[in-house]
Amino acid sequence: MSSNQLKAPFQYEKIPLENIAIDNKKKAKNMGNTLKRLWNYLTVEKGKLFLVILMVTLSSGLSLLGPFMVGMAIDDYIVTGQAGGLGMLLVGLMIVYLFHSLSIFLQNYWMIGIAQRTVYTLRKDLFKQFHRLPISYFDKRQHGELMSRLTNDIDNVNNTLNQSVIQIFASVLTLVGTIAVMLYLSPILTVVTMSVIPAMFFSMRWITKRTGPLYKLQQNDLGEVNGYVEEIVSGQHIVKTYSQEEKVIREFQERNHNLQRTGFWALTIAGFIPKIMNMLNFLSFALIALVGGILVVYDQQLVTVGVIVIFTEYARQFTRPLNELSNQFNVLLSAIAGAERVFQIMDETKEESDETNSIEVKRTKGNIKFDNVTFGYEDTTILKGIRFEARPGETVAFVGHTGAGKTTIINLISRFYDYHTGKITLDGIDLKSIKRSSLRKHMAFVLQDPFLFHGSVRENIRYGRLHATDKEVENAAVDANAHDFIMKLSNGYDTILDQDGSGISQGQKQLLTIARALLAAPSILILDEATSNIDTITELKIQAALKRLMVGRTSFVIAHRLNTIQGADTIIMLEDGKIIEQGSHEELIKLKGSYYKLYKGQVQ
Ligand SMILES: Nc1ncnc2c1ncn2[C@@H]1O[C@H](COP(=O)(O)OP(=O)(O)OP(=O)(O)O)[C@@H](O)[C@H]1O
Description:
Layout: H1 3-6, H2 24-42, H3 46-78, H4 86-132, H5 135-139, H6 143-185, H7 187-194, H8 197-234, H9 236-241, H10 245-298, H11 305-347, E1 368-375, E2 383-390, E3 395-400, H12 406-413, E4 421-426, E5 429-430, H13 436-440, E6 443-446, E7 455-456, H14 457-462, H15 470-479, H16 483-488, E8 496-497, H17 506-520, E9 524-528, H18 536-550, E10 554-558, E11 570-575, E12 578-583, H19 585-591, H20 594-603
Parallel strand pairs: 3-10, 3-11, 6-9, 9-10
Antiparallel strand pairs: 1-2, 1-4, 4-5, 7-8, 11-12
Helix pairs in contact: 2-11, 3-4, 3-6, 3-11, 4-6, 4-11, 6-7, 6-8, 6-11, 7-10, 8-10, 8-11, 10-11, 15-17, 17-18
The structure holds adenosine-5'-triphosphate (ATP).
Organism: Oceanobacillus profundus
Domain ABC transmembrane type-1: 50-334
Membrane topology: Multi-pass membrane protein
C-alpha cells in the first residue's frame, strides 16, 4: 500500500455549498413539524416545564434589575456626592444576584431532568419502532447506520434539550426586557444600540443558511462512518481471509474524510458567529459612548452618566442573547437534523398492521399450500406460478441454483414478505388473514448462520420458549445431541456465550439452535442448509437431532447437498423462480431431468 493512499486529507477543499439542494419551503415545513413533535415529547412534563419557564423569567428579570441598580447608584449617590444610601443598594444588589444564581441553578436542574426523560422516551419509541418495521426495511439498510440514529442522533437531541431550550427562552426574554427598559430610559440611545441589528441579522442569515444543511450532511456522514465500521467489525474474518485490509482502510478513509470535511465546514462557518457578534458589540459600545457623551455634555436632562453606564451594560446584555440565540440556533439546527432522522424512522411504514379481523391460530396441523403464487421484492417478479402442498408432518425440500428463489419461498411462508397474486394457505386459511405473530408462534427456524445472543447457554436455548423449566431446557439439549458438549463447557448450562457465540464451534452453535427449536415445539419447521461447513461427526449428530426434530412436524428444508434430503416427501426443483420438477427423490431420479443431473453431479 502506498503511504499516499492513507494520507490524511489535510487539505480542506471547499464543499460546493450550492450543490446542497435546499428546497427552502419544504425545509421550513419539515423543521416546523420536527419541532412540533419534539415539543409534544417535552410537554409530557408540563408541571416541570412550567417551573423552568418561571425560573427563566425570574433570572431574566433579575439580570435586568442589576445594571439598573448600578445606574441608580451612580446618578443618585455618586454623582450627587450623597454616598449614604450606597450600603443599602449594595445589599440589594447582592440579594438580586443571589436569587439570580439560585433561579439559574433550579432551571438547569429541572431542565436536565426533563431532557433525560424526554430522550429516554424517544429512545424507547425508536427501539420499539425497530421491531415494528418489516424485514425488508433492514434488508435494504446498513445496520450501523440505523444504530447511529439510536445513539448519535438522539444524543444530539439530548445535548440540545439540556442547554438550548433554556438559553433560547432566556435570550428571548432578556432581549425583550432589555429593549423595553432601554426605551424607557432613552429612546435615542436605544436607537443607537439597536443600529447594529441589521448587520447582525444579515450575517446570521448568511451563516445559518449554510450551516443548516451542513449539520444534516454531517449527521448523514457520521451515520455512514458508523454503518461502515459496524459492517467491517462484523466481517473481520472475511476481511482478513481475503487480505482486504488496504481496501477497507481506504474505503473507511473516504467516509472519514467526508465526515471531517463536513464537520470542518459546519464548525468553521458556525464559528464566525461569535466573532461577528463581538465585533458588532464593540461597535455599539463605541457608538453609545460617543452619542451618550455628546448628549450628556449638551443636555443633562436628556441623558445622565448613570444611564450611559446602564446602556453600556445593557448593550452587552442585548448582544449576548442575540449571540446566544445565534449559537443556540446552530446547536438547535443540528439537533433538529438529528430529530428529523429519528422521526424519519418512526414514520416508516410499519410491518403492515395485521387486519383487525385477522385470525389468531391457536392450533395448526401444519398444512401449507401454495396455489399459483407470484411474488417480487421490487418491480421484478421473482417467483412465478408456484404450486405445491406440504401436508401435515411432511418434509418438503427446495433445491436449485443460487438465486432460484428458495429463500424467497421461505420468506413468504413466514410472512416476512407477503405474496402478490395466487394464494398461500395454512390449514385452508389464507396466510394473509392470519396474525403474523400467531403464525410465527407455530414456526421454528434453524438457519445456515445460527444466531446466538450474549447470555448463558440456558438462556439461549430458552429463547425458544421463555417459560420452559430448566429440566425442559436440558431435555431439549439432550434430544439435540448438545448436552454432552454443554457439560464440557466451563460452567455447563450457565456458561456465558459471547454475542453470536464466538466461544463455541459452528456445529455446536447449530446444535444449540436445534435445541432451541425443539423446545419451541412448533408444528412448522424451517431448516436452511443446517448442515454445511461442519465436520463429519458433528454432522452426524446434527442429522440425528434434526431427524428427531422433524418427526410429526411439517418441515421445509433448503439444502444444496442432495444426500441430506433424499428422504423428503417432496423435492421441489426451482429454476429462475419457477418449479421445473416436483416429486420424491426416486420419482425425480426416474425422470432423468435437471434434478437427476444435479444429483449425478454431486455423487460423482
Ligand atoms: N431482499 C431482497 N430484495 C430484493 N431482491 C432480493 C431480496 N432477496 C433476494 N432477492 C432476489 O431474489 C432472487 C431469489 O433469491 P433467493 O434468496 O430466494 O434465492 P435462493 O434460491 O435462496 O439463493 P441461495 O441458494 O443463493 O440462497 C435473487 O435474484 C435475489 O437477488
